[in-house]
Design goal:
about 120 residues, Glucose Permease (Domain IIA), seven-stranded antiparallel β-sheet, about 5% helix, globular, disordered N terminus
Length: about 120
């Protein structure tokens, strides 16, 4: 069984940083075709996708990609379990959606490569 981890990175500059980051949220070797949806415009609409959607197996760890603080955690009927990390460099956020669980709390300091689930 697989789960879909949606990772939204707002603003082009952050997406470029993430794409060159040494730490990805999930292991690229954990599943084939780990990137299921890329940054950019959608062919079927005028909507612009501001991040990458990544697929991972259930129970695999999800890693924080850059230093920051946990802005919010919770559950929503559309997002499932989620974690939002505020990065202190220029006011950017990373959104982790459809998580099995999470192990961080709001205002917690999180480092690059640290588990969020």
């Amino acid at each position: 069984m697989k789960r879909l981890l949606c990772l939204l990175i707002f603003l082009n500059i952050v997406s470029l940083r993430i794409s060159r980051a040494e730490v990805w949220p999930v292991s690229a070797t954990s599943t084939p075709d780990v990137i299921t949806s890329c940054f950019g415009p959608r062919n079927w609409s005028t909507w612009f996708h501001h991040g990458f959607d990544l697929r991972a197996q259930i129970s695999l760890p999800v890693y924080n990609v850059k230093y920051g603080h946990v802005f919010a955690v919770g559950w929503s009927s559309t997002l499932g379990n989620y974690v939002i990390v505020w990065h202190d460099y220029g006011g950017h956020y990373t959104w982790f959606y459809h998580l099995e669980d999470y192990i961080v709390e709001p205002d917690e300091e999180v480092f690059e490569g640290e588990w969020v689930i």
